[in-house]
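Progress against Task 2.4 (sequence-to-structure conversion) is shown through the following example record, which the project officer requested during the mid-term review.
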Amino acid sequence: MSEPLWRIEPGDLDVKLGIEISEQSPERVVASMPVAGNTQSLGRLHGGASAALAEATGSWAAMIHASTLGRVCVGVDLNITHHRGAREGTIIATATPLHRGRRAATYEVRIEDEQGRRVATARITNLLVDSD
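Structure tokens generated for the chain above:
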């Protein structure tokens, strides 16, 4: 069976952060990232790393949707609330659609630790534009 045309691969920052995609479909994208190597000076998961994971996961979802319309996506808004600070293990991000239109797509990204406790909640909006 051939791979879907919309399969998205990680970018350079995703690779540096250790982000791995475990599931991607038009309805849901799931990615994980290790806490180790992505911490701030107090030893907790860096909020910027969580935001990068949320943006990557939500943008992958938006790109899948955009590709069904013959378009690409560009991020225009990211909002993230940090609920708890992970110190070890892996965090898992799940992006699900809130709105998928012809010109914009918005996703909720739920970030959890390995015990299923919510670490952060994000919302990302991408514009859908013609590819150059």
